[in-house]
Amino acid sequence: MVPELAVRDIAASLAFYTGLGFRVTYERADEGFASIERDGAVFMLEAISAKSWITASLEPPLGRGINFEIGVDDLGAIETRLVAAGVALFRPTEEAWYRAGPVWLGQRQFLVQDPDGYLLRFCESLGETSSRPERGRVVG
Fold first, then answer.
1. For residue 94, what are the CA distances in angstroms to 4, 54, 81, 109?
2. What pTM was computed for the model?
């Protein structure tokens, strides 16, 4: 699945995402469109226009009710980039453990909103365990 995000300012969105280490895989600048990728996570960005597939009125923040989990190898480097750029985190870095059947999956994670309000959850794996963790946020 490759989500396509409707954005108000394609240049601002590209600056935000490339600042987080995403690379532009291809773009159609004349149409306000770009495909971006980082560590296997792919998004398409499309400037809102009369041609957009919009089902209802768009009011910021866009993407209400969804967050995109993006697995990364170095969570700290991304957080450092955001802090250096003056971007506030939506939720600070935390350790969280999620029950998945008989095991618990752990990750360090934080949430940040892109320029249009889409919620991105960057996470770094802490591995898994068979017993309920005693530290961090435990879900399940």
1. 28, 35, 17, 6
2. 0.88
